[in-house]
Amino acid sequence: MQFHHHGYVSGDPRVQPAAGYGLDRPAELPDEVDVLIVGSGPAGMIAAAQLAQFPGIRTHVVERRAGRLEMGQADGIQARSVETFQAFGFAERITAEAYRITEMAFWKPDPANPANIVRGAVPPDDAHGISEFPHLIVNQARVLDYFAEVAARAPARVTPDYGLEFVGLTVAEPDENTAHPVTVTLRHTTGPQKGASRTVRAGYVIGSDGAHSAVRQAIGRKPVGDRANHAWGVMDVLAVTDFPDVRTKCAIQSHDGGSILLIPREGGYLARWYVDLGEVPPGEGTRIRVTSLDEVIARANRIIHPYTLDVKDVPWHSVYEVGHRVTDGFDDVPDDLTGIRTPRVFLTGDACHTHSAKAGQGMNVSMQDGWNIAWKLAHVLTGRAPESLLATYSAERQVVAQDLIDFDREWSRLMATPPEDLPDPTYLEDFYVKTAEFPCGFMTQYQPSMIVSEPVHQHLATGFPVGKRFKSAPVERVAEGNPAHLGHHARADGRWRVYAFADAAAPGEPSALREWAQWLGTAPDSPLLRHTPAGTDPDSVLDVKVVYQQDHFGVEFPDVPEVFKPRVGPFELVDHEKVYATDPAQDIFELRGIDRGGVVVVVRPDQYVAAVLPLSATDELSAFFAGALLQPDTMPTDTPTITNMPTKENT
Ligand code: FAD
Asked: pTM of the full predicted structure?
């Protein structure tokens, strides 16, 4: 974490100084906002936490509930989400309170006596070392608390406006030429004004209002997919049981009583039991929804026979009924106007995709939706990027949602198939291990676009696939020789990362890296010079780092080119934390297949690899950023002022 560069910070450095809109943020929701987020679930709150880093943007969140979510709903946190939490600064704290999944036990009918269940395979959760981050279980309510804290401590000081329900919206025609073309109708759900309506004009609306999204209906988008739902009796229980794996994640299949997904919960005693209630044909939802808690408990006992479950307390339970559906578009632009009209309304999370809880994806994928649209909106609203960037949201995330539905449908089908009907006895657990990268959240690979280049130089860094998230690796920080994880230095501050992996020459000697650094620091077509607004830190848009092939004893800090040692803040202090060396025991060049002739890797603000280039390809690097970003002197005049571009406050 870096701080003090704007002067001595005596309190908690995680609390950033208020700035811009955050200095006099109105207590009541104003009549005009830049971004209105509808819903304070995981998709909405990550978007709020990201946009709150931009004090020039008036971001507000409206939530129908009267206050914070207290319990229930999703609980599975995949490694990609923990990686995301790290970027938002709370991975360590949430990990400390979470349950950690390291293996999964598969229970099946005993072939000798099918009325009983027996333990089958117990494969490791991440057999291939996909991520250095853990797979966690922690309640959705706590995830929301952490994002709320980040948003409230960020420069724009964003806090949700509870007790306000979205009712409808209209979008002005593009030729009306207003910066706030979305008129939103809201209704108070609580307090003295309960039932009263009001309108708000917004520049953009993010619909994060869950599976029954009213925003989705307002823009005429439709969920497409299964007609039938699948129902689960879900209960968080404190119980006494002789089932031996009650503290291990289990998939339990009985001979004829159905199946259970058992998830131990944080705190050491609580466990969540998902009891399969089967398909719900259209029109029969009411019958399933009235399934009593006693019936769910009785079913659980039948499935785990010969073991028993003596339930002492049930802090939360629900009949969770869901179908596999993807909305026919994730924004309000009709297909035939994509790329022509600017989207003004976006759908995220359950508002645009629903699926079973079996693969534990709901909250996770929703958060990546929210992050994706939030940094893009921040770019457009601060004038860093053209409005055309916004069309990439639907293009990127709709594919991810469809892949998720396809995966979840297959996983659900396999879990519901009696073991004797599967191709071989270990088919289910083999599928689980083989496909682990997907549920861990790392299979997403964005296709070439204005923010993802063609992978023509991929062979130069095979471990950083273009379009996939940047897989961090251990390095040494030169300034003090400390071990570090290269990617962990990147925070959710809306900046792009440019990693220069040096050629083999000694740092003080002539080299391809030195030539590249000279170009980046001085050339008229340097993206660093072109895209950094005057009066902001040199790394306010592009955060440029170098990794040498030598270990930290082999790099003298004075020999490092100036472009990797920018002067920041009002005192123009030198940033010492952008210069890295190779850890000889875990050589990043070996681990990530990086060419020793030197490579540049560009990473988006949401941690996805945007480009892999040789050091010599300065034209291509320049052209890439010219396509993705605007130059400050060409920014539209009606963009919100860029007061206090994000600094390294939270790194
Ligand atoms: P949500 O978390 O649903 O958040 C939407 C928010 O919008 C809510 O806070 C809601 O109050 C608010 N809202 C809705 N309509 C309006 C409106 N008109 N105006 C203002 N605010 C509005 N997933 C699992 O993996 N396992 C589970 O056991 C599980 N159980 C669930 C149980 C329930 C009752 C629900 C609703 C969901 C459950 N899910 C479960 C799904 C999981 O919680 C979601 O996938 C995840 O929360 C999606 O995040 P989201 O932000 O898109 O939507």
From this structure: 0.94
